[in-house]
User: Fold these one by one.
Assistant:
Number 1:
Amino acid sequence: MHIEQFRSYALSKKGTSEDFPFDEVTLCLRVMGKIFAITGLDAPEFKVNLKCNPDFAIELRERYDAVQPGWHMNKANWNTVAFESGELPAELLYQLVDHSYACVVKTLKKAQREALESMDNF
């Protein structure tokens, strides 16, 4: 999966937005204002930091070389995923984006979750 496929898929989810809060090359994807994915647009290899359940994060790291502890993130809750490594099937990459999104949605306040649920899909 290349960056435009990733970006398009992530932005198709309810309540998502994108911004560059740190600099002009670090893209953050958010759900209801909370980050669920971060990627550098200037990196030689396309990698994405994705939120992950801690037990699942360890399982993924043990199984795939393309999944590493989150770079510059809380290593228990974030993975850095090499999207173009060729090791991870596209279906798994989509599932990891979905999982990250769901992990962040779980942390939203009740009113935010209710507002998200009432939104129309794009």
Number 2:
Amino acid sequence: MDNRNQLMQARRQKLQRLEDMQVNAYPNRSYRTHIISELITHKAELLASEEEVSITGRLVALRRQGKVGFGNVADESGNIQIFVRRDNTGEENYDVFKACDLGDFVQIDGICFVTQMGEYSVKAAKVTMLCKALRPLPVVKEKVVDGKTIRYDEFHDIETRYRKRYLDLLLNPEHKHSFVTRAHLISGMRHFLENRGFLEVETPVLTPLYGGAQARPFLTHHNTLDITLYMRIAIELYLKRLIVGGFERVYEIGKVFRNEGMDRSHNPEFTLLELYQAYTDLDGMIELTESLIKHLAKSVLHSDKIECNGVELDFSVPFRQATMLDLIKEYAGFDASDFDFERIKAFCLEHKMEIEPSAGSGKLIELLFDHFVEPKLIQPTFVLDYPREISPLAKLKPGETEIVERFELFILGNEYANAFTELNDPVDQRERLEDQVKMREMGDSEANVMDEDFLEAMEYGMPPTGGLGIGIDRLIMLFTNNTSIKEVILFPQMKPEN
């Protein structure tokens, strides 16, 4: 039997001892008068009054010697020492304390005092077991190298941390910061949008068709209806239906699912903000996006400068704006503004780029942008004027036949937001989706599908509208100086160990 199994067996024996004493190791209720941070904040008053307090938490340190024991109890707010003596608790209750192990949850009733060693503590009059932990917590190991303390326990390993996030948070409490920031950022988004008159709504996650983005879906089967359903890849098409129905400003923060590759900035399940505003356009979305991000920096980080990946991002100045074609010309030295397919294709092949059979000039221009430009956009940059071919839901720019009113916001070489002047011409929209169907038939598995119900809604009329999507997980990465999306998702998708 290995050491870990011996420790687990010893804990089960202590559980049996508690049962033999008729002590419930998993009671239904607990009680506390203070969280631990309050004991520390009100130290002087509690020492003077000798008021009885009750605290609850996990035992994170434990040492016993005969009739006396010390430990440390931690809750979400802090950590405090406890002093347990048999003369104070009585023999039966001290036996409960003797059955405690590291990791157990306990309730301590007593008074606050200062030990002979000067340690502020709770002197226990009673110890109540709240939850007997049957597995020992992993031991946090440290070693000093060149004067620096280095951790090398199993939860310093990244994969283990992601798979067992509950232990990661327990042993590495500093990692909670990213998720606290996440909650504050989402709350800040809601506050900002509500102040601008937006209504939060909820739309279906399971849909009979998928659309609103270029991505492959996950599919499932509904047994009662005997139909195939898809996990949504975007929120767009249902929110547009609401604009048709008379709502003028709507948004949703929700999960979307894309059956695609995984890397440091992609997880198949991620959180998206999508919003739609009637009687505005791309310029309105630029103003809203820039104002929102600057507001979040100020309200969440209390600064208009962010340090991320060793780069200082300055949100105090206006974000740069540049067209996709101008940026390709700047970084690749190639002018693609004539949309000449053969000439652009030859340039792509010259630079050994892989071209899909369904690609037209617009897709090749996107390929050039991805290759030459995207990694170089470090400071916040709105990239404008996208090809019509890769933007089937966006309105054409006035006077243009191949360019639509669309932007993507890039920071540190990654996309953070995507917005359109939304296409509200139902005839043009049908033609665009028909083109997407042809691309799909040519092998483009990420092309949009034909959605007749959405087209019918468009035929009832949708006012001029601006739409915006922001990837929340990536924004959290930016705000918490993380380089992997798995650091900001509590339970990221992982390949099974077996």
Number 3:
Amino acid sequence: MKVKDRSLLSLSWPLILTFGVGMFQPIMDSWFLSRTSEIAAAGVGAVLPILGALFMAIQAFSQAGASIASQYIGGNYNRHARVTQTMVILGSFLLGISITLLVVPLSGTIAQWIGLEKQPAAYAKEFLLVTAFGFAFRSLQTTYTALIATHGLTIWNLVGNIITIVVNAFLNFVFLDGWFGLPSLGVTGVALATAISWLVAALFLGLIFKYKLKHKTKRSDFKRIRVILPDWIRIGLPASAEPFSFQLFQIFITAMVVHLGTLAMTARVFAANFAALAVILSVGLGSGNQILVAHLVGAKDYKKANRRLHQSLFISSAGALLIALLVAFTGSTLIQFFTLNEEVIQLGVLCLWCDVMVQPFKAANIVLTNSLRASGDSMFPAVVGSAMMWTLGVGSALFLAFVLDLGLAGLWLGMAADEFYRSIVNYIRWNRGKWKSTGVM
């Protein structure tokens, strides 16, 4: 059965589980870091949005290339699809190396940029320095994941993520508890475990891509890259800009949280780990829908693509709301997994209740933005979405947090307002149908 004829559920359920397992990694890292100290967990957690910005840009760029390949596959242009895949793999690897060269000399400065001082800043710098050397492998892992999903073999991405988590957990115990006669490495150990797990995952998924999908790079492919590269740049750069802008927005929010003090910073890091659980369903369905939309646009079946979008939109928004409510109701118990500090627990639970307002609109944005990118209409969410984020979104967050004096809860509700504004505008854009004329064929 062709990918475009498969059901949303058959493509999405491995992706939902894959992202669920993937979400567990930062939670697990926070737990291991909290065994070192709460300050270590807070310091590293404060710089994670910066890594998130870099990884989201890589992921969006890779998914843009995968969507181009999907359109070619849907239109039965298999040679073009193969060349696109070769180009995306090479490009993402070089992008990962470039980011390493950028982050390593700036690791100390980055911690200072967001307002960290003394010990939290030292922990953040230590974590960034070590993980930076794994960015190329993280880039390859992300790219192979996108390309394998494009061919509908989403179950292998789930296996790859499980391997990542198992390797990461095992190495965390090795490096923190001093197994096999090794010294306890603290934050460096957690970072090293993370980087090595990326390497293992990239190798595994690379083998799946080569032998299961039988991808072969031919010398003539490199001559054809110049033909396909303009479309990848046209779609990929805007596709990367929007999530990168969103992560910069998260960094701005983090800097405001740092301004509120260590208590707020610690509560946000712990609460954010569990708030991310509500995104799993929408990210999985959004990614599955992105694959279907790209194949359907390639086959020029626009009516079915529109139906798939609305199906995903309803299920993901409703599901995210229910999960956010469940997390909020159990928030006190969940945060005690990290700390017994009553002030941190109370503030973290308040954040989780605020997050109930965020998740339905966040889910809608994920589905809508992914669908627009899949069809080639990535410029609109990049330009309009980013502009709204840095005007209405920032304005709402600052007004609620500092003018109405709601503090951390105000910043969280500001994020909800941002998701609401952008989801409405993106839905209007989709309904106008411009995406039907922005593909690569």
